[in-house]
Write a structure and sequence with these properties.
- There is one protein chain.
- By secondary structure, the chain is mostly helical.
- The protein has one domain: Up-down Bundle (Ferritin).
- Strands 1-2 form a two-stranded antiparallel sheet.
- The N terminus is likely disordered.
- 3-hydroxybutanoyl-coenzyme A binds next to helix 2, helix 6 and helix 9.
Length: 343
């Protein structure tokens, strides 16, 4: 299918009672053609690319979701980075460093995808640092012991995969393509978390208890990563109609619980939820109640680590200023050389 690359025509205010100027009519026709093209692509479950016409609300929704997702990856480096120097062996240290670097890479793919929608990375970063942008609730909880590295990998990355595999089919091309690579790396992250917990679970009684304690603390926050219940999710309906979201928040949460039920048995641990069950009538996994007030508090910036995470991000941004300046100066020098060569 050929892409529809429609340039916008500047707005011309019409005099009251006057016939619409030709520029207005041209603009209206371009918009109508663009909308028809967009509707067809969505109905055929095909992809919208950056230069295609898209409704302003679609662009805004994507920017919201992709930038939040990018911020989550970047802030998500913190709880694990704190444990690199305390990892129990050289092997564990190397694995954890690689994982944290992967998360930085995910942030970069996603910021690049968001930039194709017309917002600069600097602007997104400024919004994050100013506390105006959201990032995933999960990263506002503390990582208290080494077993938390296992629980984060198994539960948090596991929930991320469950949520993000369907996003590989998101209707916006750059987002879907970024998600393919991210999901491959997240699978490795989940396995390394599972393996940490398995080793602790098969260790001394104190190590097993440490693993169980970490699972107990991360279970409910991981379930809340999927977002509010469906009847309290204002964005789901439209995002699903636009083929950005493929499954509802509750549907994915239920699938995730089903996956965890099987895996926790292999770990020799338990989920801290006596109400987990498979409902034969609905054919869905159910779980016990979640504290949605706590979720709202975390989103409002009042979670256990919100201020600490933002402060650390600000500090890292300030510390990295000289690197950005050096990179910009080098890029400028290179482009001047290219221009001189071309002249
Ligand atoms: N944390 C913070 N905010 C959340 C949230 C969460 N766990 N869940 C929902 N919200 C926010 C939404 O952003 C929205 O706020 P906004 O309108 O101000 O943007 C509000 O709560 C209402 O929620 P909705 O269900 O209506 O919002 P969405 O339709 O956008 O669904 C979502 C929420 C399922 C998280 C969806 O945005 C999504 O799939 N995002 C992409 C995945 C993502 O961002 N994952 C981050 C996880 S961490 C990660 O990837 C790092 C890895 O290394 C573990």
């Amino acid at each position: 299918m050929a892409a529809q690359n429609l340039q916008s025509v500047p707005d011309q205010p019409a005099a009251p009672g006057a016939a619409a100027p030709a520029a207005d009519q041209g603009q209206a026709q371009l918009e109508a053609e663009g909308q028809a093209y967009f509707d067809r692509v969505i109905s055929e479950d095909s992809r919208i690319e950056p230069r295609d016409w898209m409704p302003a609300a679609y662009r805004k929704t994507l920017l919201r979701q992709i930038s939040q997702h990018a911020h989550s990856e970047i802030i998500g480096m913190q709880p694990e980075a704190n444990w690199i120097s305390r990892a129990p062996s050289l092997k564990r240290k190397a694995i954890l460093m690689a994982k944290v670097q992967d998360e930085a890479g995910h942030g970069l793919y996603l910021y690049s995808a968001a930039e194709t929608l017309g917002q600069s990375r600097d602007q997104m970063m400024d919004d994050l640092i100013a506390g105006k942008a959201r990032y995933s609730s999960i990263f506002n909880y503390p990582a208290l012991t080494w077993a938390d590295m296992g629980a984060i990998g198994w539960l948090v990355d596991g929930a991320a995969i469950c949520n993000q595999v369907p996003l590989c089919r998101a209707s916006y091309g750059p987002y879907g393509r970024a998600m393919v690579r991210i999901c491959k790396e997240e699978s490795f992250h989940q396995r390394q978390g599972f393996e940490i917990l398995l080793e602790l679970s098969n260790g001394t009684p104190a190590q097993k208890q440490m693993a169980q304690d970490a699972v107990n603390r991360w279970y409910a926050p991981a379930l809340m990563m999927f977002g509010p219940p469906d009847d309290d999710s204002p964005n789901s309906k439209q995002s699903t109609a636009w083929n950005i979201k493929r499954f509802s928040n509750d549907e994915l949460r239920s699938r995730f619980v089903g996956m965890m039920v099987e895996q926790v048995r292999v770990l020799g641990l338990t989920l801290p939820d006596s109400e987990v069950r498979f409902n034969e009538d609905t054919r869905k996994w159910e779980h016990g109640p979640l504290d949605w007030n706590e979720f709202k508090e975390v989103l409002a910036g009042r979670g256990p680590c919100n201020s600490q995470r933002l402060e650390r991000r600000r500090q890292a941004h300030d510390d990295g200023a000289w690197v950005r300046e050096a990179a910009a100066a080098y890029a400028h020098k290179q482009s001047m050389k290219t221009k001189e060569f071309a002249a």
